[in-house]
Specification:
By secondary structure, this protein is mostly helical. It has five helices and no strands.
Length: 153
């Protein structure tokens, strides 16, 4: 049974079909928990259910939170952290970026040291995947052989 749809409509349906799994996961793991947390913020619901029913208490949770000395101290520490670390980290990143792009003596050695952690990780990942997919004794082929599915490659 062939549907007679014009090209634009088919492309729209294809786009929705490819987007649906991501949208479903977004809904399931982001939007639903956010909505539930928002709704529960206005109740006296406990993590461990007790004998008393859950009641709507309005903004009482937020008033209690703002009265808490530990919460205020934590907020202050977060602001101080943001005011100190963000400019320092941004300045350091900008300085290193400028240094990497300069035509100075010894900049090649600096670039090598600077990019070594990134390159090392990529090499390790490539070696691990090579061992996993190896046709002779690779983990994936050995698992396939154990379940009698034959070998890859």
């Amino acid at each position: 049974m062939r549907l007679n749809l014009n090209r634009t409509r088919r492309e729209e349906l294809t786009a929705w079909a490819f987007s649906a799994p991501a949208l479903l996961l977004l809904l399931l793991f982001l939007i639903v928990p956010f909505a539930m947390a928002f709704g529960l913020a206005f109740t006296d619901q406990r993590l461990i259910p007790g004998p008393l029913p859950t009641r709507i208490i309005g903004l009482r949770n937020f008033v209690r939170l703002l009265d808490d000395q530990v919460f205020r101290k934590a907020i202050l520490h977060n602001f101080i952290f943001a005011l100190v670390v963000v400019p320092l980290q941004s300045g350091l990143a900008l300085g290193l970026a400028l240094l990497v792009n300069q035509k100075l003596q010894g900049v090649a050695a600096f670039r090598a040291i600077y990019f070594l952690p990134t390159v090392t990780v990529m090499v390790v990942v490539a070696v691990v995947w090579t061992f996993l997919y190896s046709t002779e004794g690779g983990l994936i082929n050995e698992l396939l052989r154990l379940i009698s599915a034959g070998r890859l490659g």
